[in-house]
Amino acid sequence: MQVSQKVAVVTGAGNGIGAAIAHRLAAAGARVVLTDLDGVAVAAVAAEIESEHPRSALAQMSDAADESSIDDVIAFAEKEFGAVDLYVANAGVAAGDELEPDEAVWDLALDVNLRAHIRAARRLVPGWIERGEGYFVGTASAAGLLTQIGSAPYSVTKHAAVGFAEWLSVTYGDRGVGVSCVCPMGVDTKLLHDDAALSDTAARAVKTAGRVLSPEEVAECVLAGIESGQFLILPHPEVLDMYRQKAADYDRWLRGMQRYRATLVARTDPTT
């Protein structure tokens, strides 16, 4: 999809990757509705975009995982800009540690990292099929192709997000619906530096696995992926090699990951 003159919705756009994607889409000529639970932050990002690209960005405080909120955002976008052509399901949470005993934390991770994508697609895909064009971008993670050391909820829900995007592409890709799945490793966002969100082991795994990219670098890859119709968008190209190694010898890969995890735990636990 060429994004110029298209109408886009970007969730989780109050900072980080979402904000950078919204900036990049507007610079390429799209009209963008930015959403976030933080109404003040997302309004500020929209104002920045508007100052550079007038009449290209509007903000809406919204819960990306709530079905009625999704409906409201899409109705708002349609009223202000026209039918939604592109939906970037970018909002995500790094909730939970290890097996995570709290069911509410699992529910949060499932809602934001997976069900938000499903609910948005259910709302938009029928109209895209009827029109013969539409594009869905799901922000997952390299954890969805590999794993996330330290957090079962994050790893499981990101795997599920990749699986859902893949299913969308298989089912509707020949009916005018484009699908991309974004799977970066470490990105320099608030999430990476949030001690409450990531355990020491998880944070160290992310920071040592490869170069930490800026949100703007990821956004550039996302735009290129949308415009080329690429399903798997890998801002860290080395993830593809890791994924191939995993598929080539799963047991060997698991043993290697076990050793890597043990090293990380030893570095973060002074008693070991």
Automatic annotation (TrEMBL):
Range of residues in the leader sequence: none
CDD domains: SDR_c
Keywords: Oxidoreductase
Entries under PROSITE patterns matching the protein: ADH_SHORT (PS00061)
InterPro entries reported in the protein's UniProt record: NAD(P)-bd_dom_sf (IPR036291), Sc_DH/Rdtase_CS (IPR020904), SDR_fam (IPR002347)
Highest taxon above the source species: Bacteria
Protein family (similarity comment): Belongs to the short-chain dehydrogenases/reductases (SDR) family.
Listed name of the protein: NADP-dependent 3-hydroxy acid dehydrogenase YdfG
